[in-house]
Amino acid sequence: MNFEHHIQSIEKSLANWEIPQESKNLVEPIRYLLSLGGKRIRPVLTLLGHELFNGNPEQVISQALAVEVFHNFSLMHDDIMDNAPLRRGKQTVHEKWNVNAAVLSGDGMMILSYDLLLKNQEDKFVELFRCFNQTAWEVCVGQQMDMDFEKREDVSLDEYLEMIRLKTAVLLGCALRLGAIAANASKEDQEHLRLFGEHLGLSFQLRDDYLDAYGDPEKFGKQVGGDIISDKKTYLYLHTANHEDESIPAELKSLHGNSDDPNAKITSTLHLFSKSKADAMTLAKSEAFYESALDHLNAISVSDDKKMALRNLASFLLERES
Amino acid sequence: MNFEHHIQSIEKSLANWEIPQESKNLVEPIRYLLSLGGKRIRPVLTLLGHELFNGNPEQVISQALAVEVFHNFSLMHDDIMDNAPLRRGKQTVHEKWNVNAAVLSGDGMMILSYDLLLKNQEDKFVELFRCFNQTAWEVCVGQQMDMDFEKREDVSLDEYLEMIRLKTAVLLGCALRLGAIAANASKEDQEHLRLFGEHLGLSFQLRDDYLDAYGDPEKFGKQVGGDIISDKKTYLYLHTANHEDESIPAELKSLHGNSDDPNAKITSTLHLFSKSKADAMTLAKSEAFYESALDHLNAISVSDDKKMALRNLASFLLERES
Question: Which residues on A lie below 8 Å from B26 (Cβ)?
Answer without folding.
Answer: 140-141, 144
